[in-house]
Write a structure and sequence with these properties.
Layout (H helix, E strand, L loop, with lengths): L9 H19 L7 H10 L6 H12 L28 H10 L25
Helix pairs in contact: 1-2, 1-3, 2-3
Length: 126
């Protein structure tokens, strides 16, 4: 696992810079779209370098994304479950008595049917 940019090889760092530049330029939504020049400009502004070949490759691929690069940057969700309920207060014995007073309902079992639609007994049509 990498813990620093210094741990990345030059090619890995260049790929990461190109990817992040694509996201940044794509999020901006410029009229020209994602171009090699715009990717190089972002890389230069961040103090990194991007070769013309990588900039051209990434701009070509990013410009072919059907809904644009913004489709990879969805709005953050507020998902996640709520917290657990608090501990029961002193009314626990009353709740247990109320639960014991309710009669339990029995579920009726479904009739036995084999996979060919016949009854549970043998000697069906099949």
């Amino acid at each position: 696992m990498y813990t620093s940019l210094a741990d990345l090889s030059d090619s890995q760092k260049e790929e990461m810079v190109a990817s992040l530049a694509c996201l940044l330029v794509g999020q901006n939504g410029s009229e020209e779209g994602i171009t090699a020049d715009s990717l190089k400009a972002v890389a230069d502004a961040s103090g990194n370098s991007l070769s013309p070949a990588i900039a051209t490759l990434y701009s070509s691929v990013a410009s072919q994304v059907p809904n644009g690069v913004k489709s990879y940057m969805l709005a953050p969700g507020g998902g996640g479950g709520g917290g657990g309920g608090g501990a029961a207060s002193g009314g626990a014995p009353a709740a247990a008595a109320a639960a014991a007073a309710e009669p339990e309902e029995e579920e009726a079992e479904a009739p036995a049917v084999d996979m060919f639609g016949g009854g549970g007994g043998g000697g069906g049509d099949y």
